[in-house]
Design goal:
GMP Synthetase, Chain A, domain 3; seven-stranded mixed beta sheet; 19 helices; binds adenosine-5'-monophosphate-propyl ester
């Protein structure tokens, strides 16, 4: 059975797009009618971008897990919901059918209840890529708790900041996680984070790596023991909590241009409706297809396209615990062959790193099951696009280049596989319901084609960010005040002569390193915490594999003392404060930074130097001390 709202041709798309712009409420009400509601909504949309205040499906009641699970039990109970491929190819993979996933989610929802978790509570999830991670997320959603998944690569300090911000009293974690050749000691990191977070009442620990861990009496319990308690209670089903359409489903922290990551809040209904709509249409998912999204669930891509949208659509989601290059660079292709993957969705950085191994890891691998390829997270360079198309898709698979953000919840601009045209390096056309505009520095709309500007969205879509947790003003300031009347994405964008969109990268102080979003201010704050550092400035520079690398200019109290050691110490400090993903690739010690007379750092100049573009630094006459620029140029690393 195809999906009732699946777009099947270019003219379908054009019609749907027109309808979605002319009567957005009618359009989305029509899509939302295909979901399971406990009570239908009274009004489709109320909105105001000035506050901002956006409500979709006002007074509708639902539980997203009934859409992800219960709804499929009659027709597809034995169909795989999740296929789990472990890190080690020698270990057996696991398959959870819809029936089994339903059972496990109900069981764990009871565990949460037994441990005091209630509707509205915040639950932090810090786990590796094991099937119990989606089980934990869905169980939270079933009881109405708000989950906040934290990527396994973040440090104890980053976790503590997030726990504190969300006032999360419950944590679900693992003893450790396998990633390639490494065992990551997750519970130990949680213990370090909890030293300063006394408000945490309960830590539930799943056994995965058998790494020794300390279990604190009265606070820490084993997942397996808690499940046994539910078994002795007779495994009662858990009646899904009735949630308002606008009740938060999850918080996901992401970096912005200020120092502190912000907790992006998504709603229950709007997120469900829009993410599922995009999943079915962008990937042209057909019932029975195996969809392999290689992202980590710690990022929004994993939330949306490994868990929620695909389960709402009754699809089969393949999740992988490991990394693309272990035990060798053929791991993805082995997985595609073994599980007959139909749709592969990955990041340009992964494609570039696999390209570097040449084509020998692909030789002899049967990739004929593939129908659709996708990319996300950063602009894809044409060379990587062509390699993906030719060597992985064998020239037969459309590539969808999906542009979106943590804040948008799901794909906003993308071609639809085989339905709308693709163009290398271009996200191409907006999905129905999305009204992109380009604005100039003053916020004036730039009309016409073959133009560049800052990318904004004019009208709300169902999965737009609702707030930043605990600080609504911040949400307003970050996204809705730069260009009043619009949601501002932070991205620069080019619209070509045919109206196709090409994302050119961030125009704010946010870096995109291997598809991970990192604020320069966050890295600077971490560097500045190191003893002996007076000041620092961090910028991005083009990096062959990572897309962008991190370049730090640092002023030390004592410039000439043991710089090599200090450099290593600085890297260690950043790893401790944020995590290994934020370690600078280059550290240059400088005696001064280029500043304007008002004390503002001229990052434009530092960016040029980091890029190696030393000849054309633009006007430096407004600098307080133009001479520092020469010094920095001479000392470039
Ligand atoms: O700069 C854009 C880039 O990633 C940013 C969003 O990062 P994050 O919230 O971590 O979400 C990533 C996964 C959805 C955007 O502001 N970006 C994302 N997708 C693309 C992209 N840049 C170019 N092309 C894309 N397809």
């Amino acid at each position: 059975m195809a999906f009732p709202f699946q777009i099947k041709s270019l003219s379908d798309y054009q019609q749907a797009y027109k309808h979605s712009v002319e009567s957005p409420e009618k359009f989305w009400a029509g899509i939302a009618a295909h979901f399971k509601w406990k009570k239908k909504w009274d009004k489709t949309l109320e909105w105001n971008f000035d506050q901002p205040d956006v409500k979709w499906f006002v007074n509708g009641k639902l539980n997203i897990t009934e859409n992800c699970l219960d709804r499929h039990l009659r027709m597809s109970c034995d169909q795989p919901a999740i296929i789990w491929e472990p890190n080690d190819p020698e270990e057996h993979h696991r398959v959870l059918t819809y029936n089994e996933l339903f059972f496990k989610v109900n069981q764990f929802a009871n565990v949460l209840k037994n441990n005091g978790v209630k509707k509205g509570d915040r639950v932090c999830i810090y786990m590796g890529m094991v099937p119990e991670l989606p089980v934990a997320m869905l169980a939270c959603a079933r009881v109405g708790a708000i989950h906040s998944v934290i990527f396994g690569g973040f440090s104890a300090q980053s976790i503590a900041d997030r726990l504190f911000d969300a006032q999360a009293e419950f944590i679900i974690t693992c003893d450790g996680a396998y990633r390639g050749a490494k065992d990551i000691p997750l519970k130990n990191t949680i213990d370090d984070a909890l030293v300063g977070c006394r408000f945490v009442k309960r830590v539930i620990v799943l056994t995965r790596t058998h790494t020794p861990v300390s279990m604190i009496k009265g606070r820490d319990v084993w997942w397996e023991d808690e499940i046994k308690k539910v078994e002795t209670q007779g495994n009662p089903p858990y009646a899904a909590e009735e949630m308002d359409a606008e009740d938060p489903l999850f918080i996901l922290y992401t970096s912005g241009s200020t120092g502190k990551p912000k907790g992006v809040v998504h709603s229950s209904a709007g997120y469900m409706v829009y993410s599922t709509y995009t999943f079915v249409n962008v990937f042209q998912y057909e019932p029975g297809d195996v969809h392999f999204c290689t992202a980590d669930i710690g990022w929004v891509t994993g939330h949306t396209y490994i868990v929620y949208s695909i389960l709402c659509a009754g699809g089969t989601s393949l999740m992988f615990e490991g990394v693309p290059t272990w035990p060798d660079a053929g791991r993805f292709w082995d997985i595609v062959e073994k599980h007959k993957v139909n749709i592969l969705y990955t990041a340009p950085t992964a494609i570039r790193s696999l390209m570097a191994y040449g084509t020998s890891p692909i030789v002899g691998k049967d990739l004929s099951s593939l129908k659709v390829l996708g990319t996300v997270g950063e602009p894809i360079n044409e060379e990587a696009w062509r390699w993906y198309h030719e060597h992985i898709g064998k020239g037969n698979c459309p590539i969808v280049d999906t542009w979106w953000q943590t804040e948008t919840g799901a794909t906003m601009i993308s071609n639809m596989a085989g339905v709308t045209p693709a163009k290398a390096g271009y996200a191409t056309l907006p999905l129905p319901g999305i009204q992109p505009v380009l604005v100039d520095e003053k916020g004036v709309e730039i009309e016409g084609n073959d133009v560049s500007g800052n990318l904004c969205i004019r009208f709300p879509w169902p999965s737009i960010i609702r707030t930043t947790y605990g600080d609504h003003e911040r949400c307003k300031l970050n996204y809705f005040t730069t260009y009043p009347g619009y949601y501002f994405t932070g991205d620069g964008c080019y619209r070509d002569e045919n109206g196709f969109y090409r994302i050119t990268g961030r125009v704010d102080d946010v870096l995109n390193v291997s598809g991970h979003r990192i604020g320069t201010a966050e890295v600077e704050n971490a560097i500045n915490m190191h003893t002996g550092v007076l000041e620092s400035a961090v910028v991005g520079f083009p990096h062959d594999l990572k897309g962008q690398g991190i370049y730090a200019f640092v002023i030390l109290e004592k410039m000439h003392e043991n710089q090599d050691q200090t450099r290593l110490d600085l890297l260690q400090t950043v790893t401790r404060i944020i995590g290994p993903i934020a370690r600078p690739d280059k550290v240059q010690f400088v005696t001064g930074l280029p500043k304007t007379r008002s004390g503002k750092i001229m990052r434009r100049i530092l960016r040029k130097i980091a890029e190696g573009d030393l000849s054309n630094l633009g006007d430096i006459s407004t600098l307080l001390e133009p001479m520092v620029v020469e010094d920095i140029k001479n000392g470039k690393v």
